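Let's practice the habit of predicting before peeking. Look at the sequence and jot down your guess about where helices and strands might fall. Then scroll down.
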Amino acid sequence: MCLPQLHPAPHARQALVLGAGLSGSAVAHSLASRGWTVTVLDQAQGVGAGASGLPSGLAAPHVSPDDNVLSRITRAGVRATLQRAQALLQSGTDWALTGVLEHNLAGKRRLPAVNSGSPTTQASPAQVAAAGLAPGTPALWHAEAGWIRPRALVAAQLRTPGVQVLWGQQAHR
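Done guessing? Here is the structure:
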C-alpha cells in the first residue's frame, strides 16, 4: 500500500492512525481538533465493521474499594466519552445520560471507604425495584453513566475536519 505523497506546510503536524474504530477515531478526532492533519487506515470497507459497530454500549466506570488507578482512569474516560457524545451526537437518539445500575453479583464491586468524588453510590431500593431485581439485591448506581451508539460516535469523530480515512487498507509494516 502506498500513501499519496503529501506536501505539508512547513512545521505541519501529521499523524497516521491505524484502525478507524472507537479508539482510532477518538485519537484522530483529538489530533485533528488540535490542528494535526490525520490519515486513518482501516482494513474494513466502512464505519462499524468490527466491535465498534455494535448497536449500543454502556459508558460506566469501574469501581474498587481502594479507588485504584483503573477506577480513576475509567471515571475520567466515561466523563470524556459522554462530553464528546454531547458535542457530536444527538441526545436521546445516539446517546443518553441515563445513569446505569450495576447488579453487584457476589459483592465483587465495593465503593471506596473514603468518598473519592465518584458519582457512584449504593443503589436505592427504588432503583433496585425499577431494574426488576428482588428487594435487598446489592447493586451500585452510576449517576454519570449512560448508553451510546458506538457506530454513530465513530462516524462523527471521523468527520472532523483534518481527518482523512482510507478504507480497505492493510498495514504490513
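How did you do? The chain has a mean pLDDT of 90.
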